[in-house]
């Protein structure tokens, strides 16, 4: 099992719109590629009450590295571009790949 994790920092001013867009548009588009078997989305809780940042983790599960790699090479660039065009630098993301052991 492969876990593809995307951690995002979202500007406060677009948070609600972005959450709706993720749930109604982006996540269904990613899942429609057929490369992932499931996903989960989490809000990252801050330890510091003074920190009001909006950080999220979206975790996609793939059966194999081959499925993940096909997503990254075939579908990922266009989906990333759509997000960039819609939100620009109001969202910062980094990606990690984990393998179940």
Query: What is the count of β-strands?
Result: 4
Provide the spatial order of strands within the biggest beta sheet. 2-3-1-4
Specify the CATH class.
Answer: Alpha Beta
Give the biggest beta sheet: 4 strands, antiparallel
Q: How many helical elements?
A: 2
N-to-C order of helices and strands: EHEEHE
Mean pLDDT: 94
Query: What is the CATH T-level topology?
Result: Alpha-Beta Plaits
Unreliable stretches (pLDDT < 50, length at least 5) are none
Q: What is the share of helical residues? A: 40-55%
The percent range for strand residues is 25-35%
Whole-number radius of gyration? 14 Å
Summarize the structure.
With 101 residues, the chain is α+β, with helices and mostly antiparallel strands. It has two helices and four strands, in the order E-H-E-E-H-E.
């Amino acid at each position: 099992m492969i876990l593809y994790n995307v951690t995002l920092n979202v500007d406060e001013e677009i948070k609600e719109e972005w959450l709706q867009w993720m749930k109604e548009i982006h996540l269904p588009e990613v899942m429609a590629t057929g490369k992932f078997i499931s996903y989960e989305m989490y809000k990252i809780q801050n330890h510091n009450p003074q920190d009001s940042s909006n950080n999220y983790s979206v975790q996609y599960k793939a059966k194999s590295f081959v499925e993940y790699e096909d997503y990254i090479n075939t579908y990922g660039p266009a989906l990333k571009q759509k997000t960039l065009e819609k939100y620009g630098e109001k969202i910062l993301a980094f990606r990690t790949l984990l393998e179940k052991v």
